[in-house]
Design a protein that fits this description.
Oligomer: single chain
Structural class: alpha/beta
Strand content: 5-15%
Shape: globular
Number of domains: 3
Strand order of the largest sheet: 10-11-9-8-12-13
Length: about 625
């Protein structure tokens, strides 16, 4: 291990001594990043810090590879096609350096990044087989595009992460350490040596890049680090093969990959309009892009969101360092414990990422709750009965097919399929006819209520019983399995109720997720209180956001009413007002004792909180 430590220290010291010189040169050349709308720094800062890492890395690598004491594998530089690799990395580094002086169009950046990726794919490494948890995927002619896509994606991922002092460089350092550990486990000495040199080069620069940074990594450094990590991450877990173990490098580079995917998806959804009805032109437009670009910079990256949530730059960076360390540890674990359940690992990462995205408040990616699907219900054809008939036919066919599949599983052979297809027309006809005569096509999905729910249950019960009886009575058909009928009933009931309740569900998710206003406390858990809660949630014009109920019944405390908690009684109102920033108290009880009303009014008055009564009035309109 001594050789690794020596190389790490030498690279660190060289980069540490070189960085102040680079900073001085950057100032003289005018390569300075000035504060702006998207910038978090407040002072003009030099931005060619990547030169220190680039020079330190290649200089130490070339010199140390000539000394036998460091035990570089024989012909290592030739094995990795060093000349071509150096040329490709110089292209992306030079591209970033030019961009540090004068902004380059996105198309030009991608062009040169693709050139660098092609050099890697045609001369250094090529992803020919992707090893997945469920098997191997041979790419064939797609190996070159896959390699180029990987290189370009990771190159830009590190650049997108470069938004806070020390974030991109520190994350790259952590990835290098993970690559070093993975390489040692796989006895890949050459890549381990390269990783430790790159880590040392980053550490020496990082001293000047921590908040408040005196020099930035710049696009030159971010592109170089992204490119280098993309190439050597392919090789850290492998030795003498072109197979790409998909899981390991993707976990090690988890943070930049997650931020990039989230950014692209977020920007796509921001520009994607699912539907728009133009009544003047009598035109309905579906799924069109307008008003944004996937490549337009914004301030909604993960690190920006953390700062918006109140984190200081230092704390946000440290938190993301911790996330990178977790990803690196998972990558190491999945290599060390070869029997590790990769499917479980992927599931865990996916759940954690989902929770993190919700905590960061990315409303754009929450398609179900951001209201993007609600305009679909405004399309005139959606309100046509004929469309609902076709929807029900699809649900009936799918429910029946899934019921056979679940019941017979491996025995789902040609005879079962033939029975399903031969009985499907009859089943469709009977169930749709029952749905029609039970009034299922009279209601509007937008206003589905309890009465409609009971009608759905009645229609599905009668439809399933009727179709089952008809099949039982027809000679040659019969009932193949009673279990299929039972499974089909449950599935169809779920699908029919889900389809007809879809608008109300989406509307509820949208209103509960996006409702903002004055925080109000509702007094009274009863019909009037529930009606008040619904009105405040469904009517954002009122500008009221219910935080809970108070009620005279002690047994109601701690319960939930339509998702809103009962947090106390009149006796605990004062303590509630002290702890919570309540703006208003709404009394939702029609007949309220005078002494209690005086007590309630006195408490609200002492805390200078308005007290209002919620009631429904019928007002007579005078005839003209």
């Amino acid at each position: 291990m001594l050789k690794y430590l020596i190389l790490f220290l030498v690279a660190s010291i060289f980069s540490f001594l070189l960085t102040p010189l680079v900073r001085s040169v950057s100032k003289r050349l005018g390569a300075v990043d000035f504060p702006g709308d998207r910038k978090v720094h407040t002072q003009p800062t030099p931005r060619l810090g990547g030169i220190s890492i680039f020079v330190a890395f290649y200089l130490i690598l070339i010199i140390s590879s000539q000394f036998e004491v460091f035990y570089f594998p024989v012909g290592f530089l030739k094995e990795i096609n060093f000349n071509w690799l150096f040329a490709a990395s110089t292209i992306v580094f030079g591209l970033g350096a030019v961009d540090d002086f004068r902004r380059i169009p996105v198309s030009i950046k991608f062009f040169f990044q693709i050139i660098a990726g092609l050099i890697v794919a045609l001369s250094c490494y090529r992803i020919e087989v992707i090893s997945l948890p469920f098997g191997a995927l041979h790419l064939g002619i797609w190996s070159v595009p896959a390699t180029v896509l990987w290189v370009v994606a990771i190159t830009n991922a590190i650049n997108l992460l470069d938004g806070l002092d020390g974030l991109a460089a520190g994350t790259s350092l952590i990835v290098c350490i993970a690559m070093f550990g993975i390489s040692l486990i796989n006895q890949n000495v050459g890549i381990a040596l390269v990783s430790v040199i790159l880590a040392g080069s980053i550490l020496g620069f990082l001293k000047y890049n921590f908040h408040p940074a005196s020099i930035f990594l710049g696009d030159s450094g971010a592109y170089f680090l992204g490119f280098t990590l993309s190439v050597f991450a392919l090789r850290s877990g492998l030795k003498g093969t072109t197979t790409f173990a998909l899981l390991i490098p993707m976990i090690a580079l988890g943070l930049p990959i997650m931020d990039t995917i989230l950014s692209m998806f977020r920007r796509l959804l921001k520009s994607l309009h699912i539907m728009e009805v133009d009544p003047k032109e009598n035109v309905v437009k579906f799924f069109y892009l307008d008003g944004w670009s996937m490549f337009r910079a914004d301030r909604s990256h993960i690190h920006h969101r953390l700062v918006q949530l109140g984190f200081t730059q230092g704390k946000a960076v440290m938190l993301l360092y911790a996330v990178s360390l977790i990803f690196g540890g998972l990558a190491l674990s999945s290599v060390y414990f070869k029997s590790l359940n990769q499917a479980l690992l992927i599931t865990t990462i996916g759940i954690a990422a989902y929770i993190g995205i919700r905590k960061l408040g990315y409303g754009e990616v929450q398609v179900l709750s951001n209201g993007a699907l609600l305009p679909l219900f405004d399309v005139p054809v959606v309100n046509r009965r004929i469309l609902r008939v076709f929807v029900d036919m699809g649900l009936i066919a799918f429910s029946s097919y899934l019921a056979f599949l679940l019941r017979f599983e491996r025995e789902f052979n040609s005879s079962v399929k033939e029975y399903y297809l031969s009985t499907l027309p009859l089943v469709l006809s009977i169930k749709v006819m029952v749905f029609y005569f039970t009034g299922l096509y009279k209601g509007a999905w937008r206003y589905t209520g309890v009465g409609d729910l009971l009608r759905m249950v009645k229609a599905v019960v009668l439809g399933c019983i009727g179709s089952g009886l008809v099949l039982w009575m027809i000679p040659g058909l019969g009932i193949k399995s009673r279990a299929v009928l039972l499974i089909d009933f449950n599935l169809l009931l779920f699908l029919v109720i889900g389809a007809r309740s879809s608008f109300r569900i989406l509307e509820h998710l949208h209103s509960s997720g996006s409702h903002h206003g004055r925080k109000v406390l509702i007094y009274g858990v009863g019909k009037s209180g529930v009606n008040a809660l619904r009105e405040f949630i469904d009517n954002p014009i009122l500008g009221l956001s219910p935080v809970g109920f108070i009620d005279d019944e002690q047994r109601n405390k701690g319960k939930q009413v339509n998702g809103c908690p009962v947090i106390g009684t009149l006796e605990s109102l004062e303590s509630i007002l002290k702890k919570s920033s309540i703006s208003e108290v709404i009394l939702a009880i029609s007949e309220f004792p005078k002494e209690k009303l005086e007590r309630l009014s006195q408490i609200c008055s002492s805390y200078r909180i308005p007290l209002r009564r919620f009631q429904v009035n019928l007002e007579e309109i005078p005839t003209l």
